[in-house]
Amino acid sequence: MKTAVVQEPPVYLDLAASMERAVGLIEKAAAEGAKLIVFPEAWFPGYPTFVWRLPPGAGMGKTDELFTRMQANSIDLSRGGMTPLQDAAREHEMVIVAGYQELDGAVSGSTLYNSCVIIDADGTIANNHRKLMPTNPERMVWGFGDGSGLKVVDTAVGPDRCADLLGKTTCPWRVSRCMPKTSTSMSRHMGQRRHMAGHNAAHRARRRLLGDRLCDGA
Fold first, then answer.
1. Catalytic site residue 171?
2. pLDDT of 34-66, one tens digit each?
3. Which one of the listed residues 131, 168, 178, 215 is annotated catalytic?
4. What does the buried/exposed string (b/e) look like for 148-162 if buried means 16 or more CB atoms within 10 Å of the residue's CB?
5. CATH number of the domain at 2-148+198-217, please?
6. Which of 114, 171, 184, 213 has the most CB atoms less than 10 A away?
7. What per-residue confidence (pLDDT) applies to 195?
8. Is 131 a catalytic residue?
9. Domain segments of the chain: what residues?
10. Which of 116, 162, 171, 215 is catalytic?
11. What's the whole-model pTM score?
12. Is 138 a catalytic residue?
């Protein structure tokens, strides 16, 4: 099976433009024979790298400004925010795993989550998981997730997991520290066959984990 790993950046903090770019990348991957495509952590609408860059206190004004844009361009599943990707999955019969910033309009309508969604090849949402514990300054912009998404789901390409301990892993430290002890044993017990690791591209070390090409054989 051929798997596509997205290396293109989103249109930063512009959800509509990022969705348009994503659909084009899905079409390209499908034309090259991919049956599974993975978008990195918080690709929609971009990882908030500013939380690591701006100083506390003096930088809060800019942080507030960027957070407001990020919130306005986050995805609300209850309002069909994944529809373009679901339509693309159905059209190309492809499984899509996507890291995104989630706004839960059905609850607070303000808290953001670092989430990961698995969309099956028929366009249905097979699973949604919120990162359990945002890392360090990420807690300024993301709320805590829960364990409801820690599960393996059947898809057109086999049993997959989108988790935080983490499967479509959202943090390299969690891969090296948490996964070997907790997540791996749980995933094996649940019948997982593949694990998606999609770190953000804000740091070079993380970017090296994902390879060089959009599509590669797997």
1. yes
2. 999 999 999 999 999 999 988 888 888 999 999
3. 131
4. ebbbbbebebeebbb
5. 3.60.110.10
6. 114
7. 56
8. yes
9. 2-148+198-217
10. 171
11. 0.81
12. no
